[in-house]
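Reopening this ticket.

The earlier resolution said the output was attached, but the attachment link was broken on my side. Pasting everything inline this time so it's all in one place.
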Amino acid sequence: MRITSLALLLLSCFGVAQAAPPAAPSICASPAQAVREQGYVPINGIEQWITVTGAACGNPVILFIHGGPGNALSPYADAIYAGWERHYTLVQWDQRGAGMTYAKQRPTEDVPLTVAQMRDDGIAVARYLQRHLGKDKVILMGSSWGSILGVHMAKERPDLFHAYIGTAQVVNARENETGMYREVMALAQAAGDTATVAKLTALGAPPWTDPRNFGILRRFDRKYEGLATDAPPRHWWQPAPFYATPQALADAEAADDYSYIQFIGLRGDGMFSTVNLPALGIRFDLPVFFLMGEADLLTSPVIARTYFDSITAPAKGFTVVKRAGHDPNQAVLDAQWTILRDKVAPLLKR
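Inline output:
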């Protein structure tokens, strides 16, 4: 993959997400033109890594909001979404504190991440894509942490997006965390897994002040999800060569550590502790679609369904995927594709 500086197409820097965007021409000379590029773009004061891949500029654009918050999807996107670029222009964005963005400007641990700051970054990315690709709107897809950020972006600037698709949709920090603990404990007890029960009992139910506790619970969560789900293809999680150098791998690990602490907080007071999406309001001014793994213990389909039932939107849909958990597998990708084909594509023709 060749490296192109997308930043050359901007005048300088966006400022805040709501600022009037600088004029910049679209790179798309014709609808049939292919686009494949990666590089840094000035977003709200720092250089942030964006990749754009598509067979034709005339296709709709999908902006992926990755999870973590430090788990950039760009090293794996070509493998996971192979073939999608024939029908959509796929955009991966390494968020502030993640992936290649972290590698270019490593923040120290005392530099905080905030949901509002990253929401504004995401909005600035969407506005950049409007100009760069000559689009009125893009499709917004968020998963896990990305579903938190995606809802904030969709609520703040619905005019930028054709639709929002939330996979493994988070709803409320305390409800999701408590629900995960309760469900994992019940599964361990039913399985006679006394070792896990003992460790969970020692942790105690959330909320916690020890940042290690969430990670401990997540390991048990993955264990029991693994028993009820189909694993994704192994090659999905092999980083592309560009991202597999020793330095890139070390940067990715450091970004994950930094973002985890920012997310959980040293005393359980990180970004996650503030998440309460229903408090943002239940009206959405764009179509909304949730996609949940049936065996997802971290972001419970039951909790997500209650939230979904409460919201109003021009169109909405809720999908539960069998043999799927919190992390994506082929069944999740197939369900995402079905939503795009059957629910979102008709909206683009209106």
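Reporter confirms the inline version is readable. The first strand starts at residue 35 and ends at 43. The beta strands are 35-43, 46-54, 61-65, 89-94, 138-144, 161-169, 288-293, 316-321.
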